[in-house]
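Request from the bench team (R.T.):
"We need a structural guess for the complex before ordering more coenzyme A. Sequence and SMILES attached. Just send the tokens back."

Command: build protein-coenzyme A structure.
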Amino acid sequence: MHLSQLEEWVTCDGLPLLIRPIQASDTGALRDLFKSLSMDYACETAFAAVGRLDRAEALLGVVRLCVDPEGRRAEMTIAVLTAEQGRGIGTLLMEKAVRYARGRGIAELHGMVHASNARMLSMARRHGVTLLSHPDGILQMSLDVASVEIATPCLPY
Ligand SMILES: CC(C)(COP(=O)(O)OP(=O)(O)OC[C@H]1O[C@@H](n2cnc3c(N)ncnc32)[C@H](O)[C@@H]1OP(=O)(O)O)[C@@H](O)C(=O)NCCC(=O)NCCS
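Reply to R.T.: structure attached below.
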């Protein structure tokens, strides 16, 4: 299917809107969108891995947690800059999320991952994530926060 087939014009509150797949040229607009959001740390938390690339500060990866109203479960999403993947940043961010969850009494982290996402699955399995298959190639991840072994201790700053 061509991506243009996923485009749709709709009207929302009197405003004509084009709903279309996101594209690389949206980068600046996405940044503006995120800047406009204020985060409610009671139900949403995000940690960024910030490093120096070519002598400039850069955001190398982000882990986001969306905590349910009871505060016992949180949905986790992680993304690492493509060029920096495979060097342990995703692991660090996931373990940061686990340590944060422990401190807040969150018992389970969960999320969805495609069956072809070898890197995420490798990282998930190493941390004892339980995977439940859905028929459409999606796996449901569930992580028991208490049982995770933290492999990468943080150095004192
Ligand atoms: C999934 C993701 C967050 C992992 O981050 P990362 O920094 O690459 O992770 P790490 O380097 O800590 O470890 C990744 C694992 O992939 C393994 N790996 C490295 N290169 C690999 C490759 N080409 N194929 C498969 N596995 C690979 C690493 O050995 C490591 O495995 P291990 O846990 O068994 O040691 C990152 O790849 C990403 O941002 N992907 C795009 C967004 C995404 O898919 N997010 C997950 C959905 S929530």
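Two things stood out. The longest strand covers residues 56-67. The pocket of coenzyme A is lined by residues 77-80, 85-91, 111, 113, 117-120, 122-123, 126 (CB under 6 Å).
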